[in-house]
Amino acid sequence: MKIGKETIPRTAICTSNEETIVVRGLDLCGDVIGKLSFSEYFYLLLTGQRPQPAAQAVLDATLVAITEHGLVPSVQAARMTYAAAPEAVQGAVAAGLLGCGSVILGAAEQAGEMFERIETTRAESGISLDDAAAVVVRDYRAARRPVPGYGHPLHKARDPRVAALFDVSRCAGASQRFVEVAEAVERVIPDIVGKDLRLNVSAAIPAVLLGVGFPRRALRGIPILARSAGLIAHLFEEMNHSIGFALSYQATREVQYDGEVPTGFAADA
Amino acid sequence: MKIGKETIPRTAICTSNEETIVVRGLDLCGDVIGKLSFSEYFYLLLTGQRPQPAAQAVLDATLVAITEHGLVPSVQAARMTYAAAPEAVQGAVAAGLLGCGSVILGAAEQAGEMFERIETTRAESGISLDDAAAVVVRDYRAARRPVPGYGHPLHKARDPRVAALFDVSRCAGASQRFVEVAEAVERVIPDIVGKDLRLNVSAAIPAVLLGVGFPRRALRGIPILARSAGLIAHLFEEMNHSIGFALSYQATREVQYDGEVPTGFAADA
Amino acid sequence: MKIGKETIPRTAICTSNEETIVVRGLDLCGDVIGKLSFSEYFYLLLTGQRPQPAAQAVLDATLVAITEHGLVPSVQAARMTYAAAPEAVQGAVAAGLLGCGSVILGAAEQAGEMFERIETTRAESGISLDDAAAVVVRDYRAARRPVPGYGHPLHKARDPRVAALFDVSRCAGASQRFVEVAEAVERVIPDIVGKDLRLNVSAAIPAVLLGVGFPRRALRGIPILARSAGLIAHLFEEMNHSIGFALSYQATREVQYDGEVPTGFAADA
Amino acid sequence: MKIGKETIPRTAICTSNEETIVVRGLDLCGDVIGKLSFSEYFYLLLTGQRPQPAAQAVLDATLVAITEHGLVPSVQAARMTYAAAPEAVQGAVAAGLLGCGSVILGAAEQAGEMFERIETTRAESGISLDDAAAVVVRDYRAARRPVPGYGHPLHKARDPRVAALFDVSRCAGASQRFVEVAEAVERVIPDIVGKDLRLNVSAAIPAVLLGVGFPRRALRGIPILARSAGLIAHLFEEMNHSIGFALSYQATREVQYDGEVPTGFAADA
C-alpha cells in the first residue's frame, strides 16, 4: 500500500559495493575502524561531520552522565524481562529502552526546544536573556506545560551531574551560550512558578550539547544510546546473578487489592 | 508472587546517596564524567575494571565495525516504526534492536562460545590447534548446528572488516590467541563442511575481544550497543526526510498472494 | 528511588490465594473459564462489567475490522524481525505493535476525543449537532491539527469497513449517538477543510464503541489487541515460509544513496 | 542486501483491491465483520479454516485462562514503562510482551512439542502411553532439559486452571488424546524425577488445543495474544491511577549494594 507521496527511498548515511562499505563519504575499513572512537563515529553518522575536540568532550560527558543511575524503573523492567525470557537479550534491552519516554528521559529534548525558543525570542526582540527566559517560561505555565529539566525528586540542590557537565563544557572551550540560557531559566523560575526548581541533568544535557552544534532533534538519542550501554551492563550482571524475580517479588509485597472478591474468599495471610 | 528462592535483590554496579552517585566504586561526578570516554565507561560498568589501552582500542574498533551497514532489515523496521509512531523514538529504536537476534547479529556470541571450546579442547587434550578446531567443528556438524561466524551472503572473500579488526588488534599489542583460533577454524572448514566459508565480522569480533579479556557472555551486548547508535543516526535522518513508508511500499510491489479469493474478486491492475 | 508521592501499589483487577484466582470479583476457574469468550473477558477486565449484548457485538466487530490488512508496515517489521531473531516470537510481535502509533492506528482514540468534545459542545451550548461539529473541526484547523479519522490513502469513498461497522451497531440496537456525531463531522469537513474527506475505519471505531459505553481512553487498546492477533497469524505463516528477508530485499531495490563517496568508489551495477 | 535465496514475498492471508479486503478467501466486510467473534477470526487467520465448535470452546477457554494473573513481572514492566513513557501505550504493551519468554509463558509450546514426541513414540513403537511418556521424560532428563509444564512455584496440587480447561475440553466433546498424554507424563514424573510435579496451566494448554487441531508451532501465540488483552486492561487502570513508580520504589527497598564505594561515602540511612 502506498502511504504518502514518496516512493523512492533515499539515504545519505551508508552505501557499499562488494569490496567497500562507505559511511558518510568515508571508507569504513580504511578510514574509520581503528581511527575513530565509538562516540566520535556516532557523531559522524548522525551529523555527517567529524566532531571538533570540544564537541567530542561534551558528547562523551553527556553520555557518561546518564548511562547509569542504579536500579531505576527501566533497568528493573529489563532485568525482569531477561529473567523471564533469557533466550533474547535484545528483547530485555528493548524493554528497558521503551521506558526512555517523556516523563523520565525525554525531558532533555524538550528542554533543548525551550532553550532554542528563548534564544530566538532574545535575538528577535532585542530584550535581555532573563526577560526572554521569563517570556517563554510564562508561556509554558499559561499552556500548563511543565518546565522541562528543572526540579528533581531527590535533590533540592542542583543534581551534582550538572556542575560536572558544565565544567567539562567550560574546560573544553565550548560555547557557553546555552549554559547561560539554562541558568537564566533557573533564575526566573522562583518568581513565575513559586518554587525554587534547580537545573537537573535533563536540562544540562542540551545546555552543553547545543553549544557545540549537536542537532536539537537528535537529543532524544543521547539518553537512548547511553541507557543501552547501562542496560547491557545490568543484563550481564543479571546473567551471572539473577535478581529480576526478586525485584518483582519485592514490588508486590505491599500491594493492596481494592476490588471485589467472591463470597468466602480469604486473602492469604 | 515469589518465583525462585532469592528475594533480596543485590547489585554491584551503582549506588547513591543524596550527594554522590557511585559507579563501580568510583564517584561518577568526580572520577568519571570528563575523564572516561563513553566506550571506556561501558567497559568499566560491564567488567568492574577500567580497560587497558589494548582492550580500549579493540572495543572501539568492534563497536565501530558493526554500528552501520546501510538499510538492513532492522533499520528498515525501525524507520517504518518511526514513520507510523513518531511520538516515540524509543519505540523505533526498540523495534530495530529486536532484530539483533540469533540469525543476524547473535552469531558473535555463538562464535565466541565455539572459540572457547576449541581453546579448552586444545589445552585439555594437548592436541594441535587445528586438530582441536576440527574436533569442535565436526561436533557442530554432527549436531546439525551451523558454524557461527563463517560465510557471508555477499562476500566470497573475507568480509573487509575482518582484516581491519585484526590490524587494530595486532597494532594495539593485544593477545592474538583467539585470532589464531578463528583462523584455524577457517582452515579446517573446507575439508569438514565441503565449502570454503570465510571468517565474517561476527567471528572477528570475539576473535579480537576474547583476547583482551572481554567476557564471552557479554558479547551479545556489542552488536546491541553498536546498532543502537546506528539506529539513532537513521532515525534522525528519518525525522528530517521520511522514507519509512516508501520502504514499505517498495517491499510489497512484487508480493504474490497465493491464497483463495471470493468469486468475482479481481486484483487491482 | 521514590518518584512521585504514592508508594503503595493498588489494583482492582486481580488477586489470588492458594486455591482461587479472583478477577474483577469473579472466580476465574468457576465463573469465567468456559463461560465467557475471550473478547467478553477482555471487556470485563477493562471495565469491571460484563458487556451487554450490543457492546459485545460492537466490540467483536471493531476488533475483527482491524486485525488484518495485509503486509502493512507493522507486519513487515514483525516478519523481518522474526527472520532475524526466530528464537523470540514475542520480540517480533512487539516490533510489530510498536508501529501502532499516532499516524497509523492511534487515530481511533484521537477521533474519539474529538467526538466527545463535539457532544459536550452541543450539550453545553444548545446548538445543533452540525454546528457543534463545525466549531470543533474549526478549532482543530486553527491549531493545525489534522482531523483524525477522515480521509484514506486508497479509498476516495468511505472505507468499506465503515458501513460494515455501522450495520453491526444498528442491528445490535446500540446507541447511534456517536455515529451521528461522526457523520456530522463528515458533512462539515468539505466547507471547512476544502476537501471531501470521508470517514475511515479509525473514526468508525469510536463512533460505534462510545455508543456502548466503551471507555474513550481505552480506545488505544483496540488496535493493539487486534493487531496482536493479526501479527501472530503472520508470524505463524513466516515460521512455515519465511518472507522477512525477501521483503527487506525488495524494499531496497530502488534505494538512492545521495551522500558522498570516497574517490574511486563505484556502485555495483 | 539479498539474504537467502527467495526474493518474491508470498502470502496467503490477505489481499485487497479498491473495494474489497479479502481474508483467507472471505470478504472481510461481507462475510466476517459481525459474523465471527474475535477469537473465531483469529483461528481463521491462523489456520485458514473456521473453527469447529469444540475448537472454538477450547480456544476461548485457553485464552481466558492465561490473560490475567495479577501483578506478574511482565505487568510490572508494562506499568513502569507506561509511567515513564505515557505518550506510547503501544510501547508499554510491547515491554510487557517481551517477558512472554521461555521461562514464564513459553512452556506451553515446549510442552506441546514433548506431547507430540510422546504420541509419535507410542505410535511408532507400539508401546503403552505410560511407557512412551517415560521414554521421552527420561530423554529430557538425560539432556538436562526441564520437563516443561509441570510444577508450580505456588501450588503443590494442580493449578486450578488445569481442571477448568480439562472440563471445557470434555464438555465440548474435544478429543482427549493429548489430555491423556499430559496425565501420563504426570504419572511417570515421580519415579523419574524424584518429585511429584503436577500439571500446570502451561501443559494444560497444549493438552486441550492439540486435541482440536490447533497447530503446535502456533502455541506460542496463545500466551502472547492473551497477555496483550491483560496488559491493556492493566494499562487502562494505570492511566486512571498510576502505580508504575510505586512498584519500582517497593522493588528497591531491600536492595543490597555489594560493590565498592569511594572513601568517605556513607549510604543514606
From TrEMBL, chains A, B, C, D:
| Chain coiled-coil ranges | none
Q: Which UniProt keywords apply?
A: Lyase, Transferase
Q: Which GO terms describe its cellular component?
A: cytosol
Q: Which GO terms describe its molecular function?
A: citrate synthase activity; lyase activity
Superkingdom: Bacteria
Query: Some GO term, biological process aspect, for this entry: which one?
Result: carbohydrate metabolic process
> Which EC number(s) does UniProt give?
2.3.3.16
UniProt keyword annotation of Transferase present: yes
Would you identify the family this protein belongs to, as annotated? Belongs to the citrate synthase family.
Provide the protein name: citrate synthase (unknown stereospecificity)
Which pathway is this protein assigned to?
Carbohydrate metabolism; tricarboxylic acid cycle; isocitrate from oxaloacetate: step 1/2
Under Pfam families, the record lists: Citrate_synt (PF00285)
